Amino acid sequence: MGVAQAADPVLNLYSARHYPTDEALYSQFTQATGIKINRVDADDAGILARLKAEGSASPADVILLVDASRLWRAEIDGLFQPVKSKVLEDAIPANLRAKVADNGGTPWFGLSTRARVVVYDPATVSAADVDSYEKLADPKLKGKLCIRSGSHPYNLSLFGAMTEHLGPAKTEVWLKGLVDNMARSPKGGDTDQIKGVASGECGVAVTNSYYLARLMRSTKPEDQAVVSKVKVVFPNQSSWGTHVNIAGGAVARHAKNQDNAVKFLEYLVSPSAQKHFADGNNEWPVTKGVQFDNPALQAMSGGSFKRELVPISAVGMNQIKVQQMLDRVGFK
């Protein structure tokens, strides 16, 4: 029985990507390879907890997570197995994948990117006042900043990147400045921050780019009303570039279908899959030269923008240090 099961072309996927548009990706992979995907959906934290609880009995072959700090944490906890793939190494820039492990393999790979952008109310705030992350802590924005919880992985990753750029001491002063400038205590998700700017509750907010793109592409009148009242800035274009986070993938440590797992990750960096990340879920491809048709991404960035080159692995490593800083400055 065990031999027959091992020969079945299956892939057990644990995914934190809860995007309906990904269904097409999975079905295309099955059509192309004959490999059936069995999927378990949960958030990043839920998937990591499940992997730890299952241990060596885990059926998981591939893990998809949506944040650099969680990928780093899973790597440190020994939940991935480093893999060697020339396809993945050639397709994905070095700063968007884990450092090479002792066995010469790579523990995890970035598969798509999302920018941490600034949305502002042009009636009360000028673009020049919010064109860098550092300026968000300027006292002239006092009472105008809306942002989700500092402990959310998207913010932990941004703050981890700022620690690389500024050093811990200056980053902590900057975080205190953000707290001083808040229009209200952190609450809600990124879409709520955008809506807060549109409603006049805030003058400026921080959001992942795909939340704004969703509103831009929505046909709902209330979403279009929100979009009409805000403008977007890609910060730090004149210095180190805008912070980008990743959604990434890895082969599970106890994968039973390793070849299928690597084949799936390689499929996700193919031109068709990378185009799907852009057009289907408003993310930027990690591979160069992929042409996509997403009008919101084109309108938002003018087609391209300068991205920071801080290694995503370094961003992840800073998360514990960042959390301690957040506690000290009272950033909830």
**Averaged pLDDT, please?**
94
Query: What structural class is derived from the secondary structure elements?
Result: alpha/beta
How far apart lie the N and C ends?
A: 52 Å
Radius of gyration from the alpha-carbon trace, in angstroms: 20 Å
Q: Tally the helices.
A: 15
Q: What general form does the structure show?
A: globular
Q: Give the CATH H-level superfamily of the largest domain.
A: Periplasmic binding protein-like II
Which stretches are poorly predicted, pLDDT < 50 over at least 5 residues? 1-6
SS strand fraction:
5-15%
Protein architecture, described:
The chain is of the alpha/beta class and 332 residues long. It folds into 2 domains: 2-113 and 243-301, D-Maltodextrin-Binding Protein, domain 2; 115-242 and 312-329, Periplasmic binding protein-like II (D-Maltodextrin-Binding Protein, domain 2, 3-Layer(aba) Sandwich). 43% of the residues lie in helices and 14% in strands. Strands 1, 2, 3, 4, 5, 6, 7, 8 and 9 form a 9-stranded mixed β-sheet that branches. Helix 2 (22-33) links the parallel strand 1 and strand 2. The model is unreliable at 1-6 (pLDDT under 50).
Labels describing this entry:
332 residues, alpha/beta, D-Maltodextrin-Binding Protein, domain 2, 9 strands
